[in-house]
């Protein structure tokens, strides 16, 4: 007996979306790609057959396929209606960082469309949206997987969920949660050897490597880490109301804090950042004078309901000081594991490793729907 068809909509074809499409093209028994969208263009498999499907190679190949229906940007509700009318179960993969799309997850889920995403926004914004997402999933008998929202493809959320589901008591979660900030400090202030790299040049390199958020200020202002800790804290059972409900240390120079959040604002920020290199050089030198290095870390003290995000000095022979590249390290302290935490470590940013988490989530959803 052949398995019932599953239909897939993918929104976002940037660094993560492009790597995801390459992985999708190689998946055995992949769902049929019937929606592929970017900010101003949408490709659809023609109705009513939802066939032929969109080739899952890359945007350019898909966009050049003549049999598809092509349009400008569609409303999220229109995409939800299209997917819900397909002759089988449907899944949405959101590879954007768009909060407006994330706010529409309940619309998809109530229609029975499962959601897979690396987009942190929906899970770390107001607590009411978090609750609405999971209530809507239950109502629509749909699934929600978002492993790559924390630690990219590293098994961070699945590990925490397993600890909680099996009755362990998580007391503390701490570590380095930003691939960008890890790369910046590991390169700018290495624990072994020395570096004369300027802060702004390393920021530009992190952006070029695809580690940063679409707006790198979301990494430098600590909000990306705060969002990840909000997600972890909520899974650990804390009702964190929003990612700005606890103190966050920003690395944005005060003089650049009021630049607009537009594409032009990003360009102005990157152009002017070199003017402020001395500020971060000073932070590095202060740590160095104490024989230490500076790193950007976060922690959740579950019993005290306290979340902290910011800079800290570390001994040069510590695990955090010795991280390489864009590595994250996340330590789970629990009752069962005692004084020796369960540790997850590895690349925490980049298109391929993030897409791996998205593809692995997709496989899990497909297995559970079939
Ligand atoms: N990069 C990384 O290492 C990691 C990223 N993530 C998350 O993955 C997501 C994607 O990141 P990344 O690929 O780096 O980002 P990019 O900026 O490279 O790509 C974003 C994509 O989303 C599209 N897009 C944005 N808004 C909309 C919209 N409203 N409707 C349709 N398409 C839209 C853009 O369209 P267009 O092509 O037209 O501009 C683009 O294709 C983010 O949420 C990020 O936080 C998570 C973990 C690690
Ligand atoms: N910009 C983020 C990407 C992954 O979440 C980071 O650098 O960690
Ligand atoms: Na992860």
Key features?
370 residues; alpha/beta; Rossmann fold; 2 domains; seven-stranded mixed beta sheet; 15 helices; globular; binds NADPH dihydro-nicotinamide-adenine-dinucleotide phosphate; binds the ligand N[C@@H](CC=O)C(=O)O; binds sodium ion; Homoserine dehydrogenase; HDH_CS; NADP; Asp/hSer_DH_NAD-bd; methionine biosynthesis
Helix-strand layout with pairing:
Blueprint: E1 6-11, H1 15-25, E2 32-37, E3 42-44, H2 59-63, E4 69-71, H3 76-84, E5 89-94, H4 99-102, H5 105-110, E6 114-116, H6 121-124, H7 127-140, E7 144-145, H8 157-165, E8 170-176, H9 179-188, H10 199-208, H11 217-220, H12 223-235, H13 263-272, H14 277-289, E9 292-301, E10 306-315, E11 327-334, E12 342-347, H15 351-369
Parallel strand pairs: 1-2, 1-5, 5-6, 6-7
Antiparallel strand pairs: 2-3, 3-4, 8-9, 8-11, 9-10, 11-12
The structure holds NADPH dihydro-nicotinamide-adenine-dinucleotide phosphate, ligand LTNE7NMQ and sodium ion (NA).
NADPH dihydro-nicotinamide-adenine-dinucleotide phosphate binds at residues 11-17, 37-40, 95-98, 101, 118-120, 148, 152, 179, 210-211, 213-214, 349-350, 354.
Can you tell me about this structure?
It is a single chain. This protein has 370 residues and is of the alpha/beta class. It is built from 15 helices and twelve strands. Helix 9 packs across helix 10 (199-208). The model has no long low-confidence stretch (mean pLDDT 97). Sodium ion binds at residues 147-148, 150-154, 156-157, 357. It catalyses: L-homoserine + NADP(+) = L-aspartate 4-semialdehyde + NADPH + H(+). Belongs to the homoserine dehydrogenase family. NADP(+) binds at residues 12-17.
């Amino acid at each position: 007996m052949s398995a019932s068809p599953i239909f897939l909509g993918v929104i976002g074809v940037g660094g993560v979306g492009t790597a995801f499409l390459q992985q999708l093209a190689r998946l055995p028994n992949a769902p049929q790609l019937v929606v592929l969208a970017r900010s101003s263009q949408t490709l659809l498999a023609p109705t009513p057959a939802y066939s032929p499907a969109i080739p899952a190679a890359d945007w350019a190949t898909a966009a050049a396929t003549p049999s598809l229906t092509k349009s400008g940007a569609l409303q999220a509700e229109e995409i939800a209606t299209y997917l819900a009318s397909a002759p089988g179960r449907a899944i949405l993969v959101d590879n954007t960082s768009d909060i407006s799309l994330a706010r529409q997850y309940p619309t998809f889920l109530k229609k029975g469309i499962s959601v897979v995403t690396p987009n942190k926004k929906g899970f770390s914004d107001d607590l009411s949206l978090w609750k609405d997402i999971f209530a809507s999933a239950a109502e629509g008998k749909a699934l929600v997987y978002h492993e790559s929202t924390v630690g990219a493809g590293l098994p961070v959320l699945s590990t925490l969920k397993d600890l909680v589901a099996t009755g362990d008591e998580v007391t503390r979660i701490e570590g380095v949660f930003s691939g960008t900030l890890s790369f910046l400090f590991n390169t700018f202030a290495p624990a072994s050897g020395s570096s004369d790299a300027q802060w702004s040049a390393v920021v530009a390199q992190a952006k070029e490597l695809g580690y940063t958020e679409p707006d790198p200020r979301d990494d430098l202002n600590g909000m990306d880490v705060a969002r990840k800790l909000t997600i972890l804290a909520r899974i650990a059972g804390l009702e964190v109301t929003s990612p700005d409900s606890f103190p966050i240390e920003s690395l944005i120079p005060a003089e650049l804090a009021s630049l607009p959040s537009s594409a032009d604002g990003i360009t102005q920020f990157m152009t002017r950042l070199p003017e402020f290199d001395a500020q971060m050089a000073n932070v590095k030198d202060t740590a160095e004078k104490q024989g230490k290095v500076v790193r950007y870390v976060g922690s959740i003290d579950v019993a005290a309901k306290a979340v902290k995000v910011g800079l800290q000095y570390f001994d040069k022979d510590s695990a955090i000081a010795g991280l390489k590249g864009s590595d994250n390290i996340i330590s789970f302290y629990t009752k069962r594991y005692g004084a020796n935490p369960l540790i997850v470590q590895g690349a925490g940013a980049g298109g391929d490793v993030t897409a791996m988490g998205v593809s692995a989530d997709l496989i899990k959803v497909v297995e559970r729907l079939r």
